[in-house]
Each structure stands twice: as C-alpha cells, then as structure tokens.
Amino acid sequence: MEEPYDQKTSEQIRAFYKQHSRRPAQFKIGDDGSLNTYNKEGVLESTISLKTFRPITTEERTEMDTQRLTKLSALDLLYEQERKKLREAYLNYKATGEVLPVIQANQNVLTAELRRVDTRSAVRGVKTIPVPTTNQILFDEPYEQRKLFGTHNLLGKDDIISEGIFVLERRPFTGSQFYGRYEKAGTPLPAVVPQESGVVGTALLTTGVTARVFFSAEDSQNGYLSPMWPVDFVYKETRYSSAFQAYEAERMAEKGQKEVRDKILKTRSARTIAVHTRKVTEPAKSPQALWLPILTAVYNQHPELVEKLVSTGQDTLVYADPAVGGGGVGVGSDSKKILDPANWRSDNVVGKVLEGLRASMREKAPVAEPPPPEAKESVITVEEQEKAKTGAIIRAVTGKIKIRK
Predict the structure, then answer these.
(1) Alpha-carbon distance 85 to 102, whole Å?
(2) pLDDT of residue 186
(3) pTM for this prediction
(4) Beta bridge partners of residue 68, listed in sequence order
(5) Which range among 32-41, 217-226, 336-345, 380-389 shows the weakest confidence by mean pLDDT?
(6) 147 strand-pairing partners
(7) Which of 68, 90, 204, 292 has the highest CB neighbour count under 10 A?
(8) What share of the chain is helix, strand, coil (3-state, %, to 5)?
(9) Cβ(312)–Cβ(351) under 8 Å?
(10) Cα distance between residue 205 and residue 194, in whole Å
(11) Contacts of 39 (CB under 8 A, 6+ apart)
C-alpha cells in the first residue's frame, strides 16, 4: 500500500504525538491540522504539514481501470508469444538435444504469467470467517446454537471446522489507490483526469500505462531500481558492488576479456566500469540469462530492496539505458521518446526481469534472511579504494616536489 509519508516524516509524526501528550504547551496542533513545535520561550521551531485524504473521483477510477486492462491486454499477448517460443524451443530440443533454450523459454513463460497475475490482482490475502451457528444458516432451526461445522455438523464428525473458514481475497488495486488519494492540504479536487501521473517518480506512457523510468543510481526517486545502485552481494562466489558490475564482469568473461574483467573488480565506480568496457561493444549472448540470476541474487540478499521493489505496485519498470542490447530500452531518460514504447530500440530486459521478481516475491511469505554465500573473489572494498586514492594523491604531490640537497 502507498504510504502518505516517507519513513523520516512518519517517525517525526510519531515522535511529535508522544511529546504532545507530555508537553502540550510546546507541541501544539494548529487550526489547519499542522504539527507545530515551540521552544520554551514560545518561539516556533518546526512545522509538519499533514496531508489530507480525499475520495477518488469517477474519472480517476475509470483511468485506473483503463490502464489496468490495457496492461493486461499487452501481457496476454506477451504470454502467448512466450508460449509459442517455448513450443519452438521444445521442438528444437527434440531435434538437437539443446536444453538451455527450453529452460530459458520456460522461465520466460513463468515470468509473463506472474506479471499477469500481479496485474489482475495486485492485492492478495487470506481472510478468516468465524464458523456460523446452525440457526444463522438453517432458518428452520431457530433455536439451534451449536456451530454449523462443529462436532454435530451436517458433514459428519470427520469434517470438523473449528478455526473458521479461510477465504482467499483478491483485489485489483491497493486500498489507498482504490478509495482515495493523499494530497497536500489545500490541493483542489481534480476536475478531469490529469495527463501525467500524480505519484512522484512515475510517468505516463503514450499507451496510458503508468511507468517508472530509471537509469542512474543518483536518481532521488527511482535510483534504487538501477543496476548501478551500490549494494554488495555475492554472485558465483564473487563479491560485487552493484548488479551492473556483475553483469559487465560476466559479459567480459564471456567475451574472453580477462584483463578488462580484472580492471572492473578494482573499482566500485559505475562510470569507471563503463569506461573500461566501452571498447567491447558486442552485447552478451543472452542478456536475460545474465540479468535474471544476477538481480535475483541482489534481491535475495537484500530484503530492504525487496520492500522497495514491491512498493512500486503494478507500475511498468523502464530501464532507460541508451545502449542497444545492454538490458534497457535503447533510449535515454532525458529523451521525450522514452515515453513512447514504439521508439524503444531494445527489449527492456532489466525492467521485465524486475517486474517478474516483483511478482514472484510478492507471492512469497517473509522468511528469515539467510547468510550471504561465501566469496572466493571480491571487488575492491570501500576502505581499500579510499586508501588507494590517498596513495595516488600522495604520489602525485610528492612527484611534483623537488627535494633539494
């Protein structure tokens, strides 16, 4: 569910109400609902402006339904295309014995189906209905107070239901999306459906679908989705500092570029990695076969990123890598063409993989975080990199100073 406030603001609000009950003279609620903090001299020190919740308009709900159906139509088509590819891969396997394309095609079908399920019912949960008494169901027995499915139930003693009836609930939208919107106080009610998304960090594609466009890890809204987002994790017994680094290291190994791969592991900078690999322009043999296990390893080892990924709801995830074949759409985030999928020059592999992970991880029950796998090889650590920078500066300075005898 969308949260009206970020974590920092939520903590400040909780802290305010705790202090308000103890020191109401210094922690006052304004006439407009704002939370005002004063010092002992009565001087205003800080203010927290609370948002207001308004009901959703008919136009907004219609737009939501239209976007959902449009996305479902596209995903249905994608699902059938992936099934066709799976059949072709299986026929090829029967003729050649090559099994890897079948495994990959089967994974693609699973990912497409999970994305369809996620779009059809974004919210799923189990609700318990208490066991009714007999007279609540059988009106010809008004005095029978025993449980309908208890020891004396109509189904027999072997069908005792004591804990209630469990019902699977499915909803197409979260409560905060379906019932209303959180807005800044004083925001006028929209008269028509806005042509751009009202959620920070999202954009409206020409197809009418809400999307999150991401590329740089420095993006304040969607940077955490970027493969360049700094996060240490272990993949194939090697510790990397980002998914982008792991992908490029694997691509260099695939192309026989061992020296370039070694250089990649000596830096934590995405820009430096891009410089080292720019001369090797040939894309990976199968970008999806690389991105899927790499990003899966990242999210399996970092539950905090799973929460952020799941919080993107049903938004289409668009990796705005301008390079063709690198996992993005082949169009930069600073280009207006990015909002029209017809202009995309690549398959948005990273975006699709993240959507598949989002759908599958939303289905999983929370489990204890397993210890990270051991690494036999590692990228340079932050401490080692800082030490190397300091040494380089010292060498540069001392090299310019002539020592007189």
Answers:
(1) 9
(2) 54
(3) 0.59
(4) none
(5) 380-389
(6) 133
(7) 292
(8) 45, 15, 40
(9) no
(10) 13
(11) 26, 45
Per-residue confidence at 370, pLDDT binned at 50, 70, 90?
A: low
What digits encode the pLDDT tens for the residues 166-203? 888 888 887 767 788 777 765 554 433 333 445 678 88
- DSSP, collapsed to helix, strand or coil, labels residue 170 as strand
Residue spans in the chain of domains classed CATH 1.10.357.40: 203-378
How many other CB atoms sit within 10 Å of the CB of residue 215? 24
| SS3 assignment, position 161 | coil
pLDDT, one tens digit per residue, over 231-251 is: 999 999 899 999 999 999 999
Q: Are 108 and 85 in contact (CB under 8 A)?
A: yes
Tokens of residue 388, six digits:
């190397």
* Tokens read off for 98: 């090559």
Name which of 178, 175, 189, 174 is nearest 54 in CA terms. 189
**Residue range 203-378, CATH number:** 1.10.357.40
Residue 6's φ and ψ, nearest 5 degrees, are -75, 170
Q: Write out the two tokens for 107.
A: 């994974």
Q: Band of the pLDDT at 33, cuts 50, 70, 90?
A: confident
